[in-house]
Amino acid sequence: MNKIGFNVLAWSANMSDDLKPILDRLKKIGYDGAEFFVGSDDVPAYKRIGEHCRNIGLEVTTVCVLSPEENLVSPEQAVRQKGLEKIKWIIDRSHDLGSQVLCGPFHSAFATFSKAAPQEIEYARSAEILHQAGDYAAEAGILLTPEALNRFECYLCNTMEQLSHLLKIVNHPNVKAMFDTHHANMEEKKLGDAIRSIGPRLAHFHISENDRGTPGSGHVPWDETFAALAEIKYKGWLTIEGFTRNDPDFANAIGVWRQFSEPWEMAESGYKLIREMGEKHGL
């Protein structure tokens, strides 16, 4: 069975000791790992939380976003360089946590648009920085997995076809693909086909319901999803990412205006769904 993780953004985007009892309970449920958002500037906290995860036997993955001032597709070299430096800082904090994988839409700035379709020069700009970031991440033992987002949060990579195009240009063994069922639910014609198309490059996977609530409570086709993962012999993480209003600042930043599910209901029912689907389809 693939390793199962849970993103603690359901509770908080901050890095603090308040996460410790949450991590303890996730471990008790049966989770193999926890995923953390890297954004807080409390550097010592990353090491403390990383040590706690090691002590209780939880593995770690991380996620991040970039601001408009760090946009890798900007025509301004100084902005792209700032983006590279931010990614390196995020890799350092991920290393402090003991992260294995850094995922997220860091191929470009979150919710930042050019009022035009993506251009080849933008893919080239992003790829140049991602290749350099791949070198840096490899030294830290962390795999980079850029993520395709829906059209309301990103324009460079909405689909697996676009993400694959970008990764071909990046051409780095330490920069692979991530798949998120929430975004794919909006952008892909068939989730199974999309998973199979990105299969050779796929290295991280988010289990996320169509409304970001409890997996299994909406209309994401989980049988189709897990059957495709089994077909491509996917061996990476299956990490639940669901959002709530528990951290108002973060919720406001990503347009979460209502409570989709309670975090522990999401964690407990979601874990059960992944186990059942994994056993059913032979993951």
Automatic annotation (TrEMBL):
The Xylose isomerase-like TIM barrel domain, residue ranges: 23-248
One Pfam family here: AP_endonuc_2
Domain of life according to the entry: Bacteria
UniProt-listed InterPro entries: IolE/XylAMocC-like, Xyl_isomerase-like_sf, Xyl_isomerase-like_TIM-brl
PANTHER family, A to Z: HYDROXYPYRUVATE ISOMERASE, INOSOSE DEHYDRATASE
UniProt protein name: D-psicose/D-tagatose/L-ribulose 3-epimerase
Originating organism: Aquiflexum balticum DSM 16537
